[in-house]
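Milestone M4 deliverable, item 7.
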Amino acid sequence: MKIIWVKPGKILPLDTGGKLRTYNILRQLAAKCELAYLSFYGGNRDFEYESEIARHIPGTMPVHTRIPNAPSSWVEFCDYLYRLPSPTPYTVSKYTSPQVRELLADCFRLRRFDIAVCDFLCTSLNFPRKLAVPSVLFQHNVESVLWRRKAQLEVKWLDRMTSKLEYAKMMRFEPTQVRRFDHVIAVSEQDRQAMTSMVDPKQISVIPTGVDLAQYRYQPGFRAAECLVVFVGSMDWEANIDGVEFFCHQVWPRVLERMPQARFRIVGRNPHSRVKKLASGSVEVTGTVPSIVDHLREATVIVVPLRVGSGTRIKIYEGMAMGKATVSTRIGAEGLDVQDGQDILLADDPERFADSICALLGDAGLRGRIEAAARDTASQYDWSVVAERFVEILRATIERSRVHCPSPEVSAMGI
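Output delivered:
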């Protein structure tokens, strides 16, 4: 099976859940199939990245484009204003490249591949209007759900209005694009259900979230730090920023009232100024770290206090695989094969969240039971298992395209 996989942005370093999911599946596919990974990125030309990613994933085709690559900068702000009149969401239009569109058009015209994978909705407008090659949309999130939740929780009026505008655009754009593809792959049953109003449910499959069991392994006998609560995530992503602010302002004071010796550690890249302000005598902000494994290993309890999001959180399975007890909101654990009170504790309001943390910190027996169950759950989801399911879906999509007449062309929305 010959696969072309298309994704925007540099996949290295592996510092986001989306990157981790794609990277691990690609590594597995490269060993099983004939894979071409089209990794297109903007900013300055990065020869070191191009060389490194080719070593990690054989068959990589790095493409340097003129896509803006300066988050939160005046360059991107001006680019946003320039594209504001477009009906296409900015998170899609900014990743649409004439170079990539031309390259993919040639690949489809010559039918060099058996199937194409569009990784993330933001990649979709790079694909030809007529999908002459069977094509699958890999939806890590349901974008309209993500933007709706974001718009509901934004505090600053400008951010709230921007999110509402993106949500309105996404509500029109996402269903149209989802219907273009021969098949859609979701990462949770919740996401599949959210997309059933956009496309025939038979055209949507679910793959579970995975974990690298070799890297995130349990070490019997290792003693975690005492009363250390850890959060791991990219600290320049709004959902994580909102989550740790909510936690520090509304949950953590309740924990300290009962356990003044407790410490909270926020681990993740590029902490926003709002995150840095949270640092105190009991709260540590690490910034970018070489590896999160040591921080997870030291944790007594892991927390995922997210109030915004879609898709699934790989970080939960990583902690569970290492035998860690986790407290999460329901949105944080959404889509994962977890059971409240068995292998995880779920809480949405501040009081219950704090109660759950204190229960785990103060009761070694309860913590041990949750930890053992967490290891058992995560052990079922090595990336090799996930990749096998992914291959099955791709093969079934190719087979259906051979026995059915090609679907009529559905025009893509322009920029």
